[in-house]
Design goal:
heterodimer, A: alpha+beta, Ubiquitin-like (UB roll), DNA polymerase, domain 1, 2 domains, five-stranded mixed beta sheet, 5 helices, 38% helix, B: alpha+beta, Aldehyde Oxidoreductase, domain 4, eight-stranded mixed beta sheet, globular, iron-sulfur (chain B)
Chain lengths: 152, 778
């Protein structure tokens, strides 16, 4: 039995410890907001927070998260997260939406650590989250908008 | 998270044309938007995986699946012999086996599928097959296919005037070649289907598809069922880009065959590698041209041999190449022209639809011809482009006989030229390049004219279904699918406008073959043109019914009844829409209607290649500026200015999003996205580690993206809007030509730039070396 917290709730799962966290979230816990994109930590669609740090859950063995606090898109509640979600809606960032859970998780983690990021900071933090609809310009703008709202 | 729908505060008359947010935005940002992979599965669902061939061309002597069947968790395998009906998922020519039987025609071709209790068990089992191949010679590229006269379907020729005589007569003449790379769709959501057996032999399919009706028919044919036995649903896709037009039928059919065999639901979700190996891509093409032109760069005659790598089967290669032929002209009048189009058969994956559908490849040809002419004449390529623009009659007829009406390119390019500061920047760049040995800069303006409508006339029809429930809420369904383009938002805006309702009164439901039948693929940029009109027709039917009844019931003239923002005005009296509807129900007025639309005025002779295939054209232009490191070949897009024509926009926020995204996706196609097969015909770029699509770094530091204002569509489209899905992709030709411009600066003027697409660092270096080698040759 592996025990960890997901979105502030204690969970214990009985799975092969090498199972990637993504599949535990999706298949065992029914949290399908986190998406499968490539399975090799190259696209960012599966991004979650482990103790506040953005991690690619498709390549993270669930054994690593024992005792840790995992946050998924469904569990975002912080002021920063709400500002990011609002900016995303206000600026009409989303097209197909499939990568956006991961984009938002990366954006929230960026703003938690760097409240006023530059364009370069944003590209660096978001460079591993790919979006085939190419919504990058709006993602950048939405991060700036959320930062502005949070510092207002 | 609570989201206030700001749209609800607007007068409904203004709903269409507003930059309203995507109808699912509040779901997307909270992870609650459901994709096929997120649908809760019935107990006992099996998970499937394909077994793929490892060689490009072979007879299968023996397929030994004993180890697969013995693997943990395996319940069944699906083979050709398990298909009760037709072993085919090809829609035009029936030459695409679901599971290939005795002949392997590309490395990555599905030979069987395995169903197991878990996804991982299925994947592990699928690679345990022992296959005894009798390998055959493989044709892998276009030149080899041309030499062998290997074609999937017959070649076609479009000819106008007397190109051979005009070539001889022309003051100047030149030959050249261009190769244009393919492109993987790399939708973030891979191909996926769930097949759930229903009572009495029926099958329910959840499919990530742009074409539910085709999935329905292919599954029915495979299972030896009839169309009414199969229901296909799709609420949304995680990207399609053309890759989910014909390919999802393979995934759905394989899942359905296993579901039929086991009697249990089956989910088939492709891994990224399998998706990239087994499903089709944009056609790569080569073009050999012969052009005659005058001293101003005006084209007198053009002869083009355009050959596409179609892969092992026809798939959509016929219509893709027809569209390529119809876009070799792009924005330019070609008086004497001949285009020979070969549809080459190779032992590689069967190529398919991709945003632009052959149009981009055709347009790349003429843009290269024009660039070559300009280099030879030492003129600004933009001046040569403008000298060749379509103009007044008789210079307004395309090679296929359609007149180019409502052409806005002169105005549009003039405005863009001025707003982007093109001339000044070109001068500044020339100065920079004169003083910079390593970093060379380049700039280019390229136009887009893209034909809107399916070439296949019968595809240009759509249906919609609207229910008004007696609490005043509306359920909207139509034949279109949502893949991120915002179609569901736009069509909801149309219905809200017609019924005078706030957007929150409209719920858009999943595309469903049991609600709207005989739908066309959501493709060819036609989604809102077709489905918007069909939904408008349904809404107008309902509104008229309500007006006729209310006029009598409330004794007011029909002309005095208005619908606005959830209120129905009966002369001076206001009644909430919900109240009116409740009363209409009590009076036994039908509150459900279908709507139907077919595009008028179009016709196409696919043999003669003549007609009016397109209802209208969408236009745009872009100026791109790049910097190229001539030591590494790397290029960087530094600035882009775009002016694009969407007629009267249905939703500027969505439209500009399509332009931004289409442009960058096109830039990826023409720069970093390289598909690479080894000599054995194995695709080695089958994951994001080796296949590079644009990232956040690739959007330029400076970008100006604008809609051409005050230009309603001259044709009677939905609220005079224009389609926007595909045309912006081709704005990225400006990036390719800006790189060519920078490379040209590496040598003395007057030489053609031998840069091929995609302009990877490797290709750029090769072009620079070729240019310099010519220069230093004795």
């Amino acid at each position: 039995m592996l025990e960890f917290k997901v979105n502030s709730q204690s969970q214990s799962v009985d799975v092969d410890p090498t199972t990637p966290l993504l599949w535990v979230l999706r298949d065992n816990l029914g949290l399908t907001g986190t998406k499968f994109g490539c399975g090799m930590a190259q696209c960012g669609a599966c991004t979650v927070h482990m103790d506040g740090m953005p991690m690619r859950s498709c390549s993270l063995p669930v054994s690593v998260v024992a005792g840790k606090q995992i946050t998924t898109i469904e569990g975002l509640q912080s002021k920063t997260a709400q500002a990011v979600q609002k900016a995303w809606v206000d600026l009409d960032v989303v097209q197909c939406g499939y990568c956006q859970s991961g984009q938002i998780m990366s954006a929230v983690a960026l703003l938690e650590s760097k409240p006023k990021p530059s364009d370069e900071d944003i590209d660096q933090a978001m460079g591993g989250n790919i979006c085939r609809c190419a919504t990058y310009v709006r993602i950048r703008a939405a991060i700036h908008a959320a930062a502005a709202q949070l510092s207002a | 998270m609570s989201v206030i729908r700001e749209a609800d505060a607007l007068p409904t008359a203004e709903l269409a044309g507003r930059a309203l947010r995507h109808e699912s935005a509040h779901l997307h940002v909270t992870g609650r938007a459901q994709y096929a992979d997120d649908i809760p599965l019935p107990a006992g669902t099996l998970h499937a995986a394909f077994g793929l061939s490892r060689v490009a061309h072979a007879r299968i002597r023996q397929l030994d699946l004993s180890a697969v069947l013995a693997a943990p968790g395996v319940v069944a395998v699906g083979l050709p012999s398990d298909i009760p009906g037709e072993n085919n998922y090809g829609s035009v020519v029936h030459d695409d086996p679901i599971f290939t039987d005795t002949l392997v025609q590309f490395a990555g071709q599905p030979m069987f599928a395995v169903a197991a209790n878990t996804h991982l068990q299925a994947r592990r089992a699928a690679v345990l097959a022992r296959v005894d191949y009798d390998e055959l010679p493989a044709i892998l590229d276009v030149r080899s296919a041309l030499a062998a006269q290997s074609f999937v379907i017959p070649s076609k020729t479009l000819r106008r005037g007397d190109p051979q005589a005009a070539l001889v007569r022309a003051p100047r003449r030149m030959q050249g070649t261009l190769s244009i790379g393919g492109q993987d769709h790399f939708y973030l959501e891979g191909q996926i289907a769930v097949a759930i057996p229903q009572e009495d032999g029926a099958m329910l399919i959840h499919s990530s598809t742009q074409h539910p009706t085709e999935v329905q028919h292919i599954v029915a044919a495979a299972l030896k069922l009839r169309a009414h036995d199969v229901i296909v649903q799709c609420r949304r896709m995680g990207g399609g880009f053309g890759g989910k037009e014909s390919q999802p039928a393979l995934i759905a059919a394989a899942a359905a065959v296993l579901a039929r065999k086991t009697g249990r639901p089956v989910k088939l979700r492709l891994d990224r590698d399998v998706d990239m190996l087994a499903t089709g891509k944009r056609h790569d093409m080569i073009a050999d041209y012969d052009v005659g032109y005058d001293d101003d760069g005006r084209i007198c005659a053009l002869s083009v041999m355009l050959a596409a790598r179609c892969g092992y089967s026809a798939d959509l290669s016929g219509p893709v190449n027809d569209r390529a032929i119809c876009h070799v002209d792009n924005a330019y009048f070609l008086e004497h022209v001949e285009i020979v189009s070969h549809r080459c058969k190779t032992h590689t994956v069967s190529n398919t639809a991709f945003r632009g559908f052959g149009g981009p490849q055709g347009m790349m040809v003429i843009e290269a011809v024009i660039d070559d002419i300009a280099r030879r004449l030492q003129r600004d390529p933009l001046d040569v482009r403008r000298a060749n623009f379509y103009g007044a009659a008789p210079r307004n007829i395309t090679p296929y006989g359609q007149s180019v009406d409502g052409n806005v390119l002169d105005t549009l390019s003039e405005r863009l030229l001025s707003s982007s500061g093109y001339r000044e920047r070109r001068a500044a760049i020339a100065q920079w390049n004169a003083g910079s040995a390593t970093i060379k800069r380049g700039i280019a303006l390229t136009p887009v004219k893209f034909g809107i409508s399916f070439n296949a006339t019968h595809y240009n029809q759509a249906g919609a279904l609207i229910h008004i429930y007696n609490d005043g809420t509306v359920m909207l369904n139509h034949g279109g699918t949502e893949m991120g383009q915002g179609l569901y938002t736009k069509v909801a805006q149309v219905v809200a406008t017609e019924l005078g309702l706030p957007l929150s009164a409209i719920r858009v439901t999943a595309a469903d073959t049991s609600k709207v039948p005989n739908t066309s693929a959501t493709a060819a940029s036609s989604g809102s043109d077709l489905n918007g009109k069909a939904a408008q027709a349904a809404a107008q039917t309902l509104r008229l019914r309500l007006v006729e009844w209310a006029a009598t019931a409330f004794d007011v003239p029909a002309g005095a009844i208005r619908f606005d923002n959830g209120v129905v005005w009966l002369g001076e009296r206001a009644l909430p829409f919900a109240k009116l509807v409740a009363q209409a129900y009590m009076a036994r007025i039908s509150l459900s209607a279908t709507g139907y639309y077919r595009t008028p005025a179009i016709h196409w002779d696919g043999t003669a290649l003549r007609g009016r295939p397109f209802f209208y054209y969408a236009y745009g232009a872009a100026v791109s500026e790049v910097a190229v490191d001539t030591l590494t070949g790397e290029s960087q897009l530094q600035r882009v200015d775009i002016l694009h024509d969407v007629g009267r926009s249905l939703n500027p926020a969505l439209d500009i999003g399509q332009i931004e995204g289409g442009f960058l996706q096109g830039a990826g196609w023409l720069t970093t996205e390289e598909l690479w097969w080894n000599a054995r015909g194995e695709l080695k770029t089958h994951a994001p580690a080796t296949y590079k699509i644009p990232t956040a770094y690739d959007w330029p530091r400076e970008a100006h993206v604008h809609l051409l204002q005050q230009q309603p569509n001259g044709e009677d489209t939905i609220y005079r809007s224009k389609a926007v899905g595909e045309p912006p992709l081709m704005l990225a030709m400006s990036v390719f030509h800006a790189i060519r411009d920078a490379v040209a600066a590496c040598a003395a003027p007057g030489r053609n730039v031998p840069l091929q697409a995609p302009a990877t660092a490797e290709a750029v270096l090769a072009a620079i070396e070729q240019l310099r080698a010519v220069e230093t040759a004795p």
